[in-house]
DNA sequence: CAGAAGTCATTAGCGTGCTAATGAGACCGT
DNA sequence: ACGGTCTCATTAGCACGCTAATGACTTCTG
């Protein structure tokens, strides 16, 4: 049953690499995707706000580091908030906005390609199973002694 | 459908973190697992041989770096091959051998816990779906233009 | 209004994994 | 036996993500 860990790790590894490669063709690396998704929706958020809104759990330091690389790549700019000197607001450049559609399409295409050999029913089962696993692991990380309650 | 990428990423992220935490209790970090699995089976292999035998694709430089940390942690020793000066053979210490059973149990428990809310049928479907995805992504990484053959 | 406490982004440091470049050693042909 | 080539491990350098520590700024409190 341990092979289940191997299976999901390998699948995610392949998807990760394929996604990075697909997005790189549009000047975006995979680690930048979570930030872009949030800023495409609402521009000018702070690192902390982005961390809170991201679809996947991500820490603020990771956002700061990634934002630095994105700034160097010309994808966003940093501006201090005039009302609160602690805050830094991240604003997308035109280049980052222009990348939205092709990147979203590329990721959609990748998901479709990866699941191309699955039936609709299998896709549904897969989604159900993954959701259950996430819920189980999110609910209570306890596992060693004391599985009750 | 893009949510599928998010689902599998999050599931793997949670499993990855939980697995690292579980193995850390036995003095082993998650990146060392692939190497240990191979050396538990056959001790004294070279980094290249380990890369070839590992259950998941892994590069030789990653094995070398991880082996350096494992050496510092007292999990293995490096010895030059007497017959071929290019080769370095990695030998597990008693400590690494003693960790085999508890770590394998911890990973099995984790897999069971993660899939505890799934029916046997769902587990079967999940395995099938993941296998198909892996095959699809391994077969031909092509995707943009030219999906044929 | 000052000092304490809270809230931010950021930096430091680690682990993991990759590709590309490097260097040591073996092997092969002449 | 010697030079080129091949085969190794290793190093360099990058991306990504985490926790813990730091520092700047705001806010609350006396």
UniProtKB/TrEMBL annotation, chains A, B:
SUPFAM superfamilies: Winged helix' DNA-binding domain. The keyword Membrane does not apply. It comes from Actinoallomurus vinaceus. It holds the Pfam family MarR. Residues 1-135 form the HTH marR-type domain. This is MarR family transcriptional regulator. Keywords: DNA-binding, Transcription, Transcription regulation. Gene3D superfamilies: Winged helix-like DNA-binding domain superfamily/Winged helix DNA-binding domain. The keyword DNA-binding applies.
């Amino acid at each position: 049953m341990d092979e289940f860990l191997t299976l999901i790790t390998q699948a995610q590894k392949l998807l990760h690499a394929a996604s990075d490669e697909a997005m790189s063709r549009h000047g975006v690396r995979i680690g930048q995707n979570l930030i872009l998704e949030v800023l495409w929706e609402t521009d000018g958020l702070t690192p902390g706000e982005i961390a809170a809104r991201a679809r996947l759990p991500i820490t603020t330091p990771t956002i700061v580091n990634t934002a630095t690389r994105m700034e160097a790549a010309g994808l966003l700019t940093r501006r201090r908030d005039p009302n609160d000197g602690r805050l830094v607001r991240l604003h997308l450049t035109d280049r980052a906005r222009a990348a939205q559609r092709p990147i979203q399409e590329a990721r959609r295409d990748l998901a479709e390609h990866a699941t191309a050999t699955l039936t609709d029913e299998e896709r549904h089962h897969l989604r159900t199973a993954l959701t259950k696993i996430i819920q189980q692991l999110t609910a209570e990380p306890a596992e060693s002694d004391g599985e009750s309650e």
